[in-house]
Amino acid sequence: MLTIGMLGGMSWESSAEYYRLANELVRARLGDLHSARCVLFSVDFADIEAMQTAGRWDEASVVLAAAARSLVAAGADLVLLCTNTMHKVADQVQAAIDVPLLHLADATAAAVTTAGLRTVGLLGTAFTMEQAFYRDRLTAAGLRVLVPPAVDRALVHRVIFDELCRGVVREQSRRQYVAVIERLAAAGAEGVILGCTEIELLVRRQDSSVPVFPTTRLHVEAAVELALAAETTAGKSG
Fold first, then answer.
1. Which residues does UniProt call coiled coil (predicted)?
2. 58 CB neighbour count, 10 Å cutoff
3. Which one of the listed residues 38, 82, 165, 196 is annotated catalytic?
4. Which of 83, 125, 128, 216 is catalytic?
5. Tens digit of pLDDT at every position of the chain (238 positions)
6. 83 given a catalytic annotation
7. What is the pLDDT of residue 107?
8. What angle do CA 167, 152, 110 make, to 5 degrees?
9. At how many degrees (to 10) do helices 150-162 and 171-186 cross?
10. Cα–Cα separations (whole angstroms), residue 140 to 28, 118, 130, 182
11. Are the C-beta atoms of residues 81 and 42 closer than 8 Å to each other?
12. Which CATH architecture is the domain 4-103+217-235 placed in?
């Protein structure tokens, strides 16, 4: 089994989901007492959030690239950047390491395409919804991406940072997110990407009238599939 490197802490609330899901998926696949081979580097999110707000993306890329190198040094065979927003610097992180960085948007786009959808809504931080780095990756995969209007974007962003990143899950916020999703569906979205790892703490599949694509789960599923493919190959050769 390959060792999965998790570059997390942005926020640790969602990184805990990454760890839990990886272990649950490996146990479901292999049974018995099996768990995922993984290493975790967790940054201080306060530092990263300050860089985001100030637009100091180059500085953030240096921090995350160094963390990714630490993961590889610890034995990681592949790396997950456990945050949608910081995929803005994914290319710089990949350039710093000699193992694959599994891009979260690629795993998500593959799931949307497999589901037969072409037009999707995107929820996430303001950076993810408003900047091109994430939407362009989805568009390059053949998808049409819709984002909420400004008022809804502000709501989605506020709930992420003021509530979900702090471990606060409110029913009122769930209802507000569901309303945003319904407005995206009315605008033509066939499904909605939960493009912030914390949103999965709030929005469940049953909350939406259209399919939702939980990026954390999709990212981890792709990583586990790759990690266990090595085990399957070894087993066949043996």
1. none
2. 10
3. 196
4. 83
5. 999 999 999 999 989 999 999 999 999 999 999 999 999 999 999 999 999 999 999 999 999 999 999 999 999 999 999 999 999 999 999 999 999 999 999 999 999 999 999 999 999 999 999 999 999 999 999 999 999 999 999 999 999 999 999 999 999 999 999 999 999 999 999 999 999 989 989 998 899 999 999 999 999 999 999 999 965 544 444 4
6. yes
7. 95
8. 75
9. 150
10. 33, 12, 17, 25
11. no
12. 3-Layer(aba) Sandwich (3.40)
- CB contact at 8 A, 145 and 137: no
Alpha-carbon radius of gyration of the chain: 17
Which pair of structure tokens corresponds to residue 60?
Answer: 């953030």
**Annotated catalytic, 113?**
no
Q: What is the pLDDT of residue 235?
A: 47
Across-strand partners of 146? 121
**Domain topology for 105-214:** Rossmann fold (3.40.50)
Which residue ranges does the chain devote to CATH 3.40.50.1860?
Answer: 4-103+217-235, 105-214
Q: How far is CA 211 from CA 38, 126, 188, 206, 214, in A?
A: 30, 22, 13, 9, 10
